[in-house]
Amino acid sequence: MAQLDERQLDPAVALAALDDAPPRTPHRQFALKDGDCFVVANDRGDIQGRGDGLFRDDTRVLSLLRLRVGGREPTLLGASLSQDNIVFTANMTNMPLEQLPQGIIHVERSRLLWQDRMFERIRLANYSDRELLVPVSLEFDADFRDMFEVRGTARQKRGKTFASETSADHVVLRYEGLDTMVRQSVISFSEQPVQLSAASADFRMTLARRGGGSLFVEVGASHVAPPSRERHRSAAAHARWRMRAKRRHGATLHSSGRVFNDWMSRARADIALLTTELPTGPYPYAGIPWFSTAFGRDGVISALQMLWLNPGLAKGVLAFLAQHQATETLAFSDSQPGKIMHETRKGEMTALRELPFGRYYGGVDTTPLFVYLAGAYARRTGDMAFIDDLWPSLCAAAGWIDAMRASHEHGFVAYQRAADTGLSNQGWKDSSDAVFHADGRIPRGPIALVEVQGYAFAAYHGLADLATRRGDGAKAKRWADCAESMRAAVERHFWMDSQGFYALALDGESRPCEVRASNAGHLLFVGLPSPERARRLVDQLLAAGFQTGWGIRTLADDEIPFNPMSYHNGSIWPHDTAICGAGMARYGERDSLVRLVSGTFESAVHFNMRLPELFCGFTRAPGEAPVAYPVACLPQAWSSGSAFMLMQACLGLEIDGFENEIRVTRPRLPIGIDTLTVRRLRVGRAQVDLNFQRVGDRVAAFLDARDEGRAPLVVRS
């Protein structure tokens, strides 16, 4: 096993460290997901360890699956995912075999997931002029490692791995964890292998002249029936039907730009892929492979990004988080009454409490963001009945915010982990080196992050509005006063006039961390800064220290810890860029926002239409592509959702669910796009198509004639 350094032990940072092999760039990995099961493989479809694998409930149940044709790795021709993210396909050809030249056999490998099973078809086509007997082999293994082991956390002891059990057409791999749970994988084949061992299956496939043959493989927790063409087709049909149903929820975007449409379509498909139907409703899991579970912060931000198009996602997120709201104080899980969950896991290590992430509350921003989302959902939909049901949870969350403020010298919301097993930093930049003083020193807690105060400000404003609508004037006034006191305190204690910027944080002695980081841009999103200070902040975020041409760096390039290849200290996170961009639009910075959209779109093009969780923060140079971060999640929900947050800001579009009114202010279209339609946009009980069209140097907005009168459209130039 590779030696683990301090950063690899950081539970916030995903660095697969089970061997010394360098990780692949994320856009050459291919992921499929179904519920709490997902698979990550390379472009040939091989699973080779590292961060690859078939995972079920946070356990890697298949760590090796390698295809060989004639004893050799096939040559890759191309690999792709279907547009709906259901089927992965790799097209390959044979290497030279005995008395057989290269490129005679076409190898097509297709894969999908359905009901916690992996279905695979290996199809060979013979383009030679004679019948062929082709050796085909599959190597396999299952290490049953917990997700946190795969990410690099070392364990002192593991459970028992049983000897493999083989039968005529399947192999059983089994492990009993220290939690006494038995986990197993059954690998089944449609044809009986000529040789089957604990680690491989060998086949001889007879291919007629100009003919072919197929082998079907399934991997699941049990052996239910022999794999077959019919089972494979049935699973694919069911998976596609369910994905179509998920993608029908909410409005869609269609423009005059074909490649731009490809980006929108892929982003929408990735949101659908990551969205899991829970008993409380749909919930966007954070990302594959490291964070394919319900995260509080990620779910809320993804829901905010999609709110204008699909408010049902926000409703599902709010319902789930309310159901799992903390009711007691526990140091191990960082929970306190009213606090909203940060993360939940199902693996062996969390079941044994080796780590606190089974249900963990160490996120300082999730609670105010939860409240903020509730207010935004109400404004978008007018659904006060749901808010009434949610009201006890919102009041409990507000009580937690109040308690945090009461314990801080200046009335801020601050964090300090309650146990050493928890996250040392608990904002969205949660790696251990993400918060520091200007000289690079790590501050002592409790830490008050600048953006968290902005979220609390927005939460109080939202609560005041909801209380007014519920007829509780006393609470409305108190929360409105809290919001304004937060605004004044942030302006007084975080503003660095000499730098024209807000400090990253206040340390435990209320000394500012005088660092220029993108966190301050989140204040623009919630509308906290004064117009004059907002202008100075925007100017810096658009200057070369932050703006790379691909997006906004997390840290200015002249700060001491700056490293464009780091996780949080100089990289580009698309969701962060989108929040900053939407904030700029709020303060009237529309033309720069259009350029930001263009850079983000061009980044997506280079990453095969998928924005990764993050990428390196190098300055854009002519002819060069953005540089991938080696173990970023792909797809990642809030990276996919950033496309829609940026587009809403560009279009200047808001929906008032109480008035059933669409409002468009100073709309812009992305560079190269002349028309754009928001299809099936629901406003109250109405459903409309909203069109934007470039007319000279302006953009006109109008409803389809058949929709006029069903939902008022107010356009402000």
From TrEMBL:
**Domain called Mannosylglycerate hydrolase MGH1-like glycoside hydrolase: residue spans:** 300-604
Q: Where is the signal peptide?
A: none
Q: Which residues form the Putative glycogen debranching enzyme N-terminal domain?
A: 32-211
> What Pfam families is this protein classified in?
GDE_N_bis (PF14742), MGH1-like_GH (PF22422)
Which SUPFAM superfamilies does the entry link to? Six-hairpin glycosidases
Q: Enumerate the InterPro entries for this protein.
A: 6-hairpin_glycosidase_sf (IPR008928), 6hp_glycosidase-like_sf (IPR012341), GDE_N_bis (IPR032856), MGH1-like_GH (IPR054491)
Q: What is this protein called?
A: Amylo-alpha-1,6-glucosidase
